[in-house]
Amino acid sequence: MKSTAIFYHAGCPVCVDAEQNLAAALDPNRVNVEIVHFGDQPQRLGEAEQQGVKSVPALVLDGQVFHINFGASLSDLR
Amino acid sequence: MKSTAIFYHAGCPVCVDAEQNLAAALDPNRVNVEIVHFGDQPQRLGEAEQQGVKSVPALVLDGQVFHINFGASLSDLR
């Protein structure tokens, strides 16, 4: 079964680097990656917080949160 | 051309999670991933520091450093 990954970001330079390099390097045969930009989808901040996302960029892979470097706190995005 | 990635870790639980999930999800057709465990290869601490690695686990992808969550500072591993 394919893994599900959600990459949360906020358009910051650190986020864009992580998206274009790390998220883009995931195996498309094994992982379905959804990209969520909080600038476009602020209503998903709550969902991200509930999963344990504290900052962006973050990748939630099968429910496990990986914070990748540090762009911005979720609390600063509200 | 294939990307080159080095995943640095120190055997900590946070490191193992990142290795088994995030590093393992990279596309093997596009990325050659080398796993470096500082417990086995302490002589590579200097190389990691020179690339900008501050803590483990970290993934260096084509020279760009991605710190993934936080397991331990490199300075604590010396």
TrEMBL record, chains A, B:
Residues 8-67 form the Thioredoxin-like fold domain. It comes from the Bacteria. InterPro entries: Thioredoxin-like_fold, Thioredoxin-like_sf. Pfam families: Thioredoxin_3. This is Thioredoxin family protein. It comes from Bowmanella denitrificans.
